[in-house]
Amino acid sequence: MSRKLLTAIALAAAPLFAAGFASNAMATVELELKSGVSDTGVLVGGCVTGNCVSYSGSVGAWTINLTTGLSDGPGNPTIDLSSIDATSSGSAPPLEIELSDNGFSVGSSLFLLISSGHIVGSGSGTATYSAYFDTGNTDFAKTTLIGTLGPFSAAYNASMTGPGTTPTPYSLTEDVMLTAGAGGVQWSTDSSIAPVPEPASLTLLGSALLGLGLLGRYRKVA
To answer: Is the pLDDT confidence value at 4 over 70?
Structure first.
């Protein structure tokens, strides 16, 4: 009886774990920072698997302590963009930070956007986060807007769900726009895209967890 139960749980949970642990080897996340006429150009993931990329340095009148992008693709359409202490002089042109990855092989009918940030010390400005997908599977393509959070002018922690795509492959792009007031500003931000689990997947996972609970209870009784 326990062997049959374990088999049923494994069959129910297999699609979830397969998606979550799919190979990252094909992911090559890309980053680009722009301000006015200054542009870093496209920075390609430098990790062994190509699923992370970072930049430190200047972009026009902005100095970036560290900007990092991470991607879980292709089997898990989740990417994260963080920027630690992006500092500008007064009234600098806006800083646009874009992170993109393509080749996602698992679709989602909805995506969850999460973004947080704050101004470090004094200064003023705004932070706006937008995310996009492109079924043409092109990096940095802003074909379909998933959603926009902001602009924010003070500390924030916001989230929303937006439309997704089931056809694969496709690309995801995150866009963070930072502005500075007359006295300059120092922003620290973190933003991410993740798939919203389908109801059927949640039901499968719930059944699997319930089955594990019953199995543990059966073993105790036995």
So the answer is: no
